[in-house]
Write a structure and sequence with these properties.
49% strand
Length: 496
């Protein structure tokens, strides 16, 4: 996706949002007192504006309670500053479509938008507690209820749009969902910009999920999530998520900040991730997982800054269902600065990532394919990563002469920590070919007994202008790259 390709989409969105007739919410008897449930009145207003050919339903200062509503073609919900669209606390005020529940639905609609400086507040924690109460009373059905927690499909999103075209989400605050915050499924020409997401109210609170969409711009957003921040998914084996620009966002997550998957049936193609900041994130800044048969290809990551995050990069091919092997190839990662802490990066947040999932020693960045399906053509250029070092050899269960004992785990849920202790502190690369490192700097704050880079079943790899800084080694030892890169069952490795 080039700038030339993106501009017509942006102009279309601007044209749509400017040339619209305004209708005040109060005209339809929608009350802002924070007590009346306005679902019927809001839906009547949307239906009326849709029938008039389109326009904006404008909410002024106030608190507007609603259950499930359906946005329709050529209608914009305009939330002015101080206007809050609030989710009902009664779980029976919400509907379910295509597995999911939501406050705001849009199904196969065109030219729709949610704009303004106001807020959507799902009141997720309180609603979840009411769902739990109704479940224990035997009123609320949830066949997947476990650990006193409703299944994510039995809790409302704030937004669920499916099969829509020309969608704008602009300027608003989207807070406190009960499940995922917002999901856009098989939508085309989607613009999400200048929004603020506070999505750490309950479990599974992804910041945003982009599912098998085409032509997407996600830019200038602030996302704080207790689950994945910006998550691209592929739920449909005959569809892919493609032509996506993720630009100039700031992301914090108690899972991964920018993630492809975990569901990856069709795949991901032509994705540009440019000029983003990640901080205080529990898992990886970037995770690309092809574990359900889909293909990940033609991905660009550029100008990424990462602070206080558990892992920089995790690229993974898996086979969660026998016979459905993924593919991952043609990924360029450039101009990255990252700081990996010694302590838990999301400590103190309301819903932290589980400490029991983490290995005892800090994990390296990882690129891990399968024995018969290699990750291909990955280039890293101008990368600087600062690690804490100080790994404890008592915890490290894998020595360099025991690499074959590291399990493949091809059918397991993909996370950088899935292998537990690894024998590298910088990069662990397994089952890969066509790997290029250029101008990569890796530093340890304290001495680490492990080697900087481990290559296992890696072929056709080039390391150029690589710099290793381990305070436990002398300058000559750090500069001897052949001692800092351990090769196992690998060939055609060029170190320059």
């Amino acid at each position: 996706m080039t700038v030339k390709n993106i501009l017509p989409i942006i102009l279309l969105f601007i044209s749509f949002t400017i040339h619209s007739k305004d209708y005040n919410a109060s005209f339809f008897g929608i009350e802002s007192n924070g007590t009346k449930v306005n679902t019927t009145s809001i839906q009547k207003a949307i239906d009326y504006i849709h029938g008039q050919g389109g326009g904006r339903l404008v909410f002024h200062v106030g608190r507007y309670i609603t259950g499930s509503i359906y946005l329709k073609s050529n209608v914009t919900i305009q939330l002015n500053e101080g206007a809050v669209l609030i989710g009902s606390l009664n779980p029976f005020d919400y509907n379910r479509h295509h597995t999911w529940m939501a406050m705001i639905f849009a199904l196969k609609q065109n030219n729709i938008a949610i704009t303004g400086k106001g807020t959507i507040d799902g009141r997720g924690y309180k609603l979840a507690q009411n769902i739990i109460t109704m479940y224990h009373r035997g009123i609320y059905e949830d066949p997947y209820f476990s650990n006193d927690r409703p299944n994510s499909t039995r809790r409302p999103h704030n937004i669920y749009f499916k099969g829509c075209n020309k969608v704008t989400i602009q300027g608003v605050h989207i807070n406190n969902p009960t499940s995922w915050n917002q999901q856009y499924d098989q939508c085309k020409n989607l613009l999400i910009e200048n929004i603020t997401v506070d999505s750490k109210n309950y479990w599974n609170n992804d910041g945003m999920d982009i599912v098998d969409c085409d032509n997407v711009i996600i830019r200038n957003n602030y996302i704080d999530a207790s689950d994945d921040g910006i998550c691209l998914k592929s739920h449909h084996p005959d569809s892919i998520c493609k032509n996506v620009l993720i630009y100039n966002n700031t992301i914090r997550s108690s899972a991964s900040a920018i993630k492809f998957g975990t569901v990856s049936r069709g795949g991901f193609k032509n994705i540009n991730i440019i000029k983003n900041i990640v901080f205080d994130t529990y898992r990886s800044a970037v995770t690309f997982a092809a574990v359900d048969g889909g293909t990940i290809e033609n991905i660009v990551v550029d100008s990424l800054k990462v602070f206080n995050t558990g892992n920089l990069l995790f690229l993974r091919i898996g086979e969660r269902k026998i016979g459905r092997k993924g593919m991952l190839k043609n990924v360029s990662i450039s101009n990255v600065y990252a700081e990996i802490p010694a302590t838990k990066p999301d400590a103190g947040y309301h819903y932290e990532g589980p400490i029991e999932h983490m290995p005892r020693n800090i994990s390296p960045a990882s690129i891990v394919g399968m024995p018969n399906v290699a990750i291909e053509n990955i280039s890293l250029n101008n990368i600087e990563i600062h690690y804490p070092g100080n790994a404890n050899p008592i915890y490290a269960k894998v020595a360099l002469d025991e690499l074959d004992s590291i399990p493949e785990l091809s059918n397991k849920y993909p996370e950088f920590s899935m292998f537990k202790e690894l024998p590298a502190w910088g990069f662990y690369i397994r089952h890969a070919k066509g790997i290029t490192f250029n101008k990569v700097i890796m530093s340890c704050k304290k001495e680490d007994f492990r080697v900087a880079i481990v290559l296992d079943d890696v072929h056709d790899a080039t390391f150029k202008n690589l710099k290793i800084n381990d305070p436990g080694k002398s300058d000559s030892e750090n500069s001897d790259l052949k001692k800092n890169i351990y090769l196992h069952n690998s060939s055609d490795i060029k170190i320059k």
